[in-house]
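Typical record was shown:
=====
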Amino acid sequence: MLEDYDSHLEAFHKGEIDDPRFFARFGLRDGGISFEGQRILDLGCDQGSLCLYMASRKAAKVVEIDLKGHLIEFAKKILNQIIVN
């Protein structure tokens, strides 16, 4: 079972805000990096917000790896919720 779901959800939502800001630091408007058609490997993905950000920007494939299995479990749960909605 996934423990600390609420704290992971809070961190995920923080990432949704921080990820575009991260890319903006490089002077890129609206996170201006094109992930279209790219294959992405995210090592240490935590809750997966960056993976979803890159996928939403048309990455061909995004693979997330984290040593903490409960974070991968959380990311899968969030992804399934997004797909269903």
In short: The chain has a mean pLDDT of 81. The radius of gyration is 13 Å.
